[in-house]
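Dissemination and training. As part of the outreach component of the grant, students in the summer workshop were shown how a complex can be specified as a set of sequence lines and then modelled as a single object. The example used during the hands-on session is reproduced here so that future cohorts can follow it. Participants entered these lines:
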Amino acid sequence: DAGITQSPRHKVTETGTPVTLRCHQTENHRYMYWYRQDPGHGLRLIHYSYGVKDTDKGEVSDGYSVSRSKTEDFLLTLESATSSQTSVYFCAITPSGGVDTQYFGPGTRLTVL
Amino acid sequence: GENVEQHPSTLSVQEGDSAVIKCTYSDSASNYFPWYKQELGKRPQLIIDIRSNVGEKKDQRIAVTLNKTAKHFSLHITETQPEDSAVYFCAARQASGSARQLTFGSGTQLTVLP
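and obtained this result:
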């Protein structure tokens, strides 16, 4: 499981509230990613990080922000949650050392009412 | 950016038969193509991958083929078993850009009928 945890694993919130999801890794990996998964759309990249304080936007970044103040934590924030952000969110890492493969965390199911 | 299309979206096969899932990609510079299996309620798990300098790779009952000229790659599962039932995703990684980003196909729901 590449030492990846996500918290919370499930969350129900109301439209307009801020939400922060946490991805934590224990193996000092440089690259970290946030995806959302919706039926019929596969996995779509929201934001990614290539080091502490180094982040960039992915395909579906509108309405999301991220922060990475230390190697082990990559935070995804929904500043003002909307119903269209109801989804399953996966964090992923690419191990260091020239490996291309991405490994995924267990996911967070977010419901915005 | 890269665009990956995956077909079919659903596939049913009899146990013991073969299953083939196909993906096409748009960026000829893409050089890494993984396949993931996702069981219901679980995380995607890597099952096999191939790099652009290789045309075929096998791992027991699973194989992947790559045609760089046509920009498509396929997953082949032989002697299917009920535990192969899952959603399968293909992906492609662009050679350019930072952070080794992957672009995923939309997934194939494979059902193996006993």
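The mean pLDDT of chain B is 93. Students were then asked to discuss how this feature might be tested experimentally.
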